[in-house]
Specification:
heterodimer, A: about 110 residues, mainly beta, four-stranded antiparallel beta sheet, about 50% strand, globular, B: about 110 residues, five-stranded antiparallel beta sheet
Chain lengths: ~110, ~110
């Protein structure tokens, strides 16, 4: 039973390019979360999705960032026109969706913007 | 507004002694709390959780204590081992919201 899979592990982009981060939740999990960790900081909530629905995106920057979790395929976190300040580790987590369930995290994608 | 705070960025403990990591929260609606451990270049892994109906939960060397009136929880590791060296995050949520708020983490170093 594979865990939460994120790819790529490392992503290098130049300023102005687009970054796409992928996350496949654990089998049987229908809830996906994205968190961002800036250097020397904690995990900041970005967005929480269920299949085909964004439930809570209160942590997402208003511009350039978007997330989806389609009926088929992985969840995608998309960052358009990246800037140096977007450089961070982006973690995806999944859960079965029941109340008080722990989150299972992927290994993260380290985004570096040159 | 940091609703979950870990005021000690780092902690060093001798092997075999007790490690105590602290976490404070401001939102009285939080009723479920978790601790995660994170090694470099890896994702956080779940350690232990506690519901607000309890004040203590134990799992092997790990015990979490919850003081609701003080809005404070702590993670005790005893005895500490070098392999426990990692960053520890506490997280909190409110039932029904599915949203987990994480603290800034405490880097624990267990000295052999």
């Amino acid at each position: 039973n594979a865990g939460v899979m994120q790819n790529p592990r490392h992503l290098v982009r130049r300023r102005g390019q687009e970054a796409r981060l992928r996350c496949s939740p654990m089998k049987g999990h229908s809830h996906v979360y994205w968190y961002r960790q800036l250097p020397e900081e904690g995990l900041k909530f970005m967005v929480y999705l269920q299949k085909e629905n964004i439930i809570d995106e209160s942590g997402m920057p208003k511009e350039r960032f978007s997330a989806e979790f389609p009926k088929e395929g992985p969840s995608i976190l998309r960052i358009q026109q990246v800037v140096r300040g977007d450089s961070a580790a982006y973690f995806c987590a999944s859960s079965p969706g029941s109340l008080n369930e722990k989150l299972f995290f992927g290994s993260g994608t380290q985004l570096s913007v040159l | 507004d940091q609703q979950v705070k870990q005021n000690s960025p780092s902690l060093s403990v001798q092997e075999g002694r007790i490690s105590i990591l602290n976490c404070d929260y401001t939102n009285s609606m939080f009723d479920y709390f978790l601790w995660y451990k994170k090694y470099p270049a890896e994702g956080p892994t779940f350690l232990i959780s506690i519901s607000s109906i309890k004040d203590k939960n134990e799992d092997g060397r790990f015990t979490v204590f919850l003081n609701k009136s003080a809005k404070h929880l702590s993670l005790h590791i005893v005895p500490s081992q070098p392999g426990d060296s990692a960053v520890y995050f506490c997280a909190a949520s409110t039932s029904g919201t599915y949203k987990y708020i994480f603290g800034t983490g405490t880097r624990l170093k267990v000295l052999a």
